[in-house]
Design a protein that fits this description.
With 309 residues, the protein is mostly helical. Among the domains are: 79 residues, no CATH class; 55 residues, no CATH class. It is built from 10 helices and 6 strands, in the order E-E-E-H-H-E-H-H-H-E-E-H-H-H-H-H. The protein has a two-stranded antiparallel sheet with strand order 1-2. It has a two-stranded antiparallel ribbon with strand order 3-4. Helix 1 packs antiparallel against helix 2.
Length: 309
């Protein structure tokens, strides 16, 4: 909104303008982590040493051995270093202060406390912390704009750079989920027709690939097709292993566990390197037995083949 105002004390009217600002909101995400806050290393070692690791050796399947080993280890770790979830932001807003951040933590703490135990006392604590956080937010914004205004007095070119993140950009948002297709000079927006055109195109392309005889064969006839038979015959002729892997020793496994980097993130199994390194001495025998079973049977547990990205 903009306009002019005649204060009545000058021949020149005062020009004014107001701009609606939107507070910057960086997207948040939920992270999963293990809490080491109350961990007792002595008690952890006792529980690890008393766990029945040898029971896993009775299973014939390596997958069953690993499942037992992982379940036993996870139960012990969950007791000493429980898994927790926390919502975090990749980046703080520019007007964030440490005092305001601490007030936000207190507000969330007492909000959870009230949700678990909705008493009048907890309600008052929740409201009090909420009011403190709101007050500090207003103060932070006020101080931020005051500081930026003083800086812009020395460099007017910084005006748009400072205000741009707060401007409303919703009008320029484009829906990326819509595929626009041009066919025969016409723009196609109907997503059903777009999908049909894609199916028609790629089906025609696929029909031109490979031997035309394949189009006349049924699924059962493909088993005896010449290219498939050639691969099968080659496998039957040369089925000997190209190399053999020697069994690992306990000292090698122990050294590998001790050299784990604690700064690395967990794998698919969710077992942190920090704890694996901490209890490496007790895990070494069971892991060595499982590794050698994999080598002997030429089989790798299914869970060890999984990953996340």
């Amino acid at each position: 909104m903009a306009g002019v105002y005649n204060p009545g004390i000058s021949d020149h009217e005062m020009v004014y303008a107001t701009m609606e600002e939107n507070a910057i909101q960086y997207p948040s995400k939920v992270i999963t982590f293990r809490s080491y806050k109350n961990i007792d290393e002595h008690k952890l070692h006792e529980d690890i040493n008393s766990a029945p690791w040898h029971v896993g050796e009775i299973f014939d399947s390596i997958d069953d051995q690993y499942y037992y080993w992982n379940s036993l280890l996870t139960d012990v770790l969950n007791e000493h270093a429980p898994v927790k979830r926390m919502r975090v932001r990749a980046k703080d807003v520019p007007y964030m202060t440490e005092e305001w951040k601490a007030a936000i933590r207190m507000k969330r703490k007492f909000s959870k406390k009230f949700a678990k135990n909705p008493t009048d006392e907890n309600l008052q604590l929740k409201k009090s912390c909420r009011n403190v956080a709101s007050k500090l937010r207003r103060q932070s914004l006020k101080y931020y704009w005051k500081k930026k205004t003083e800086e812009m007095n020395h460099d007017a070119r910084q005006f748009f750079k400072v205000f741009k993140p707060f401007l409303d950009s919703r009008a320029s948002v484009v829906d990326d989920s819509v595929i626009l297709l041009e066919k025969d000079g016409m723009e196609v927006k109907d997503q059903t027709k777009v999908a049909e055109y894609f199916v028609e195109y790629f089906t025609e392309i696929a029909c031109e690939i490979g031997d035309p005889e394949l189009l006349e064969l049924f699924e059962g006839q493909l088993y005896d097709y010449k290219s498939v038979e050639s691969i099968r015959n080659h496998k039957e002729i040369d089925n000997s292993p190209k190399f053999r892997v020697g069994k690992v020793r306990q000292d090698e496994v122990q050294l590998a566990l001790e050299n784990l980097k604690v700064s690395k993130s967990c794998g698919y199994d969710g077992l942190p390197n920090r704890l694996l390194k901490l209890i490496s001495g007790r895990l070494t025998p069971s892991l060595t037995q499982m590794f050698n079973a994999c080598i002997q049977d030429n089989y790798w547990p299914v869970q060890w083949k999984k990953g996340e990205w």
